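Reposting from the mailing list since nobody answered there.

I have sequence plus structure tokens for a pair of proteins and want to know whether others read the tokens the same way I do. The first protein:
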Amino acid sequence: MNTYSGGKLPSVGQTTIEADLRRNRSSRMLSKLVRLLRDYWLHLLLVAFTAAVVGDIALAVKYTKKGSPHDLVITTPLVAAASPVVDSGLGAAAAVLGSFFTSATHGQLQTKVVYNAGAGKLCIRTEDSSFRNTVQCIEGANPKPNTPLVLLDWVGGPSIIYITVKNVLSSLDNAPTNNTWRLSTLINYNIKVHEQSQIAAVAWFNGTSEWIYYQDANGQLREIGKDDYRDQVYREGSAGSLGPCKIGSGIGVVRWLGPTSEVEEVFCQANNLAIQGRKYIDTAWNLEPYSIQYTPSNISAGTSITATTVKQGNDTFVLLAYQASSGSLAVQTRKTTNLTDGDFRDFSLPITLVQGDGRARVGLAGTSWPDQIKIYFVVENRILELSCIGGSATNWTTATVPF
């Protein structure tokens, strides 16, 4: 028997009506609760979606701020439509590490050469068994006129490193799967360089790390790099300044394997015109410079410099190339085995390869395959390809890259 606190027992009909009312109210309350919960979760989803969109927008703004271009225009004109400018800056690399995990070029011997084609256009010439009849050109990257250029082969690349119209370091990374290019995050760091700075770069840690060298506003040699190709973060090297170089000096850098660790040497010109080296060995910089033999009396002021390594059998050689005071291209070599501190300066006598156009600062880039060296050298608006088998660097073949 039901009891009610109202003191009055309702009739059967009244009880049924009130029960229906209670059920209807409960149903309405449940429906309202469902709507509230639905609206609440929709609100959370909307907030999350908005946050994600705003985050993407912020990221996009971050990657295009500080005057960097929003869009790159990539074309593939015929060679004749994209000739180099006179004394163009130049970068070259054997494309191995950057394409290693793709099927597009894996297993092929491929060399890429980047140059200035004028009007803010950077173009890439590719050589497989022979040079292709088209080039790939990039517009919208905002390079300074006839910018110095580096083409670095590493797992995160290949990458084109250059200087913008505001004298800021920037770079473009290649996506080998579809052979397109995108701006890296380097531009975001607003690294100001000396207006006459040249640049160089090296792949480190078995090709997974990238380090770039430049002169700051005070003429100091500095490095900035990325520890891992999967990172978006660049950082300055642990030593800070690596010491002074002659303003506008060329810069060359090489990496080779020592008995216990990777070794790096970076070269630039001192005020007495000698080429000086500094070395990174046993995980630390030794910033005591060593002057390369024969260079003080055999080199132009502010000359372009390039360096590369080549393996010949069980030996590795460092090759240093520069424009001599006579205007000719000269090379010197040195082995990397059994070196004491004093041996780092002991390069061979200079070998003269080809006459230049008399200007010290011209495009110059070196690269290598096992047992073969290639040097690219700009004379007027021509690019010469000089190749040599072996580390002795004595027998060279010269050809003109067709345009």
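The second protein, same order (residues first, tokens after):
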Amino acid sequence: MFPCRISDPATKEQTARVWNIDAPELILSDTVRHIRALLVELNAIIDDVPPDPGPRRFGNVSFRRWYDTVEAQLPTLLSRYLPERVLSFPTSSDVAPQTELLSYLLGAFGSSQRLDYGTGHELSFLAFLGCIWKLGGFSDDSAEDEERGIVLGIIEPYLLLVRRLIKTYTLEPAGSHGVWGLDDHSFLPYLFGSAQYGPAISDTDETPIEGSLPNAPDPADVVKLAAVGRERAPNMYFSAIGFIYDVKKGPFWEHSPMLYDISGVRGGWGKINKGMIKMYVAEVLSKFPVVQHFYFGSLFSWDEDPEAKAPPDTIHITNQPSQQQAKNHQAETGPAATGQQSSIKAPWVAPTSATSSAFVGTAAPWSKRSTVTSPSLAFPSQTEQRSISQTPRMPPTVHARPLPQNLSEKQTTSAMPPPTRAPWAKD
């Protein structure tokens, strides 16, 4: 995808041939043209399945109808547009190549259950193209021309189809890191698009790690709407940036801070492309949430490498107890070991003896009262509680205060305290 350096033998001048999306020099093989026609058929099905106009919070449920329609028509479409040598390729597996191709292609348009789309589905489409390559479906005459034809003639139309699906059925990002991710849905357009603006190379040159075309736009132009509108048609990188502007509002550095940081790289588009390759390996191919949904078969098999290095331990893994420690802890403190029902306690609670007879009273933290250990304040036993409950209770005895001896009835009455009356009471 890097521009080609062309030397004129007569004038010895060197020029660069840039591979834009609409480049007239682009060579498309028959297989590439047929797969483009297949994507056109899938795009037309969107017109037959309009989105549901009802209220919704997440993805539109009509995407499931589009997905079911594609699933029903896909075997016929593959038989129509893929070469016969691909579908009938002899393999040692019990699974036919068409079955694996169907699985990868159907998984390239999002999840009909979760109504989302992400880089894992994009990887599935890349595996679909890889299967066709391994089955001999693409031309072997010129590998460089065929690779450019696959990227610009198949992957870019596929991305346009996916963007229409996202906007039509409001598909959610699948496993997105939010603003801290590169993009909510795609990764490949940034990888290939940055290579389009890299320095020109010859057939014998290695992949450049820095530099840019002399007339390439500045990476910081991603924040300029005029530059994005001008460059999104010929370049895959700016095409993806333009889609972000279509679906998001607000300042670019707020909703896409990682792309904004990348736009400040001083090494040019070559250095950006090098970083994109490393990031794709780390954030897509090496991420378990992405690979866990990838199907492995005979064309892309799961083979363990005995010399592979173990993944580095994260802080979450290192802080977790081992399985043997968990079993020993369960045997020592579990219900079967103590004969009692286990309770949930905070880690800082110290174990206390269940048979202690001391009663700890409630007191303020600054109180100097010590722990009450008097037997008289200890909780009574069950026998004592039973005897107390069976003892009959007598009403309290009221002792009247004696009156003086030498008082008349009138004086006796006046000596008594006055009764309590309401302010409005009458005699």
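Reply #1 (J.P.):
I read it the same way you do. The first strand starts at residue 4 and ends at 7.
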